[in-house]
Specification:
Elements: H1 3-30, H2 35-56, H3 67-83, H4 89-110, H5 117-134, H6 143-162, H7 169-190, H8 199-224, H9 229-235, H10 238-251, H11 257-275
Helix pairs in contact: 1-4, 1-8, 1-10, 2-3, 2-7, 2-8, 3-6, 3-7, 4-5, 4-6, 4-10, 4-11, 5-11, 7-8
């Protein structure tokens, strides 16, 4: 793959990752769709798109993936949808990304990995940023929604770790989405008393599931084949920034003092952790 094509694919992937946060926030802020229905439509749309992709490639998606990964994927999607009822796009993406990285760092620590002094400083900075982001105040989200967003990040971190070393990651993603489908149908049945359908909200959910989730993940796996792990981790720092910019431009969200400070601490801290790892 040429450098130009790699750069283009990487940019599209980061836009897709930011788009997941944006579509979710747009649906729950500007339409009447409920969080459970958004989650169900998103996962079912993603499953349908990936099933079609696997059929086109003459592969059997259920031969790949597993129920543990599917459960982690389901928890990530549900918690994200319910959290975005009150959290702004950029702040939510920062919390999500921070929780993902923290989860993977803690897992590495439990596995015997140790951090350098600069990495430790970066981790402390990122944690302080998260505390600022969820501290009580005029612009702070509710405690419940903050917990849900952090739980979503933890679930995505677990999902990412379970997917390491997959021989066919695209097919594994398809298998996990298809296994998550019955879980999301069960969620919809439980949430029937609070069902609120909205055509525009459903459209956002379909775009999130079929485009920015399903195709975005497949594109990311292709990019990873041509990129060092350190570079890939660093590139993902752009996703929360893109999500914040999109929220400001498209949803009229404001840039707060706390958000700026938290962004610098979280993204800067993660960058320190990634750049000063032991060789």
């Amino acid at each position: 793959m040429t450098r130009l094509r790699l750069a283009a694919f990487t940019a599209l992937t980061m836009i897709a990752f930011a788009g997941n946060s944006l579509f979710c926030r747009m649906a729950l802020k500007e339409t009447a769709i409920d969080a459970a229905t958004f989650t169900s439509v998103r996962l079912l749309s993603g499953a349908a798109m990936l099933w079609l992709l696997m059929r086109w490639q003459r592969q059997a998606p259920l031969a790949h993936g597993n129920w543990r990964s599917a459960t982690a994927l389901f928890i990530y999607a549900v918690a994200l949808s319910f959290a975005y009822r009150s959290i702004d796009t950029g702040a939510g993406a920062l919390m999500l990304f921070g929780a993902v990285q923290a989860t993977m760092l803690i897992a590495g620590f439990l596995a015997g990995e140790r951090m350098t002094a600069m990495q430790s400083a970066g981790l402390v900075a990122a944690m302080v940023g998260l505390v600022i982001l969820v501290s009580p105040g005029m612009e702070a989200p509710s405690v419940l929604d903050s917990i849900l967003m952090l739980a979503s990040g933890v679930a995505w971190g677990v999902y990412s770790m379970l997917g390491r070393g997959q021989a066919n990651p695209a097919a594994a993603t398809a298998g996990n989405f298809l296994r998550a489908a019955p879980m999301t149908v069960a969620l919809s049945l439980l949430a029937l008393p609070w069902l609120q359908l909205d055509i525009q909200g459903v459209l956002y959910a379909v775009l999130s599931g079929a485009a920015t989730s399903a195709l975005g993940y497949v594109l990311w796996y292709r990019v990873l084949q041509h990129m060092r792990a350190m570079t890939a981790s660093t590139v993902q720092l752009s996703a929360p920034v893109l999500a914040a910019i999109a929220g400001i431009l498209l949803l009229g969200e404001t840039i707060t003092h706390d958000l700026v400070i938290a962004s610098v601490l979280i993204l800067g801290g993660i960058l320190l952790v990634l750049r000063f790892g032991k060789r």
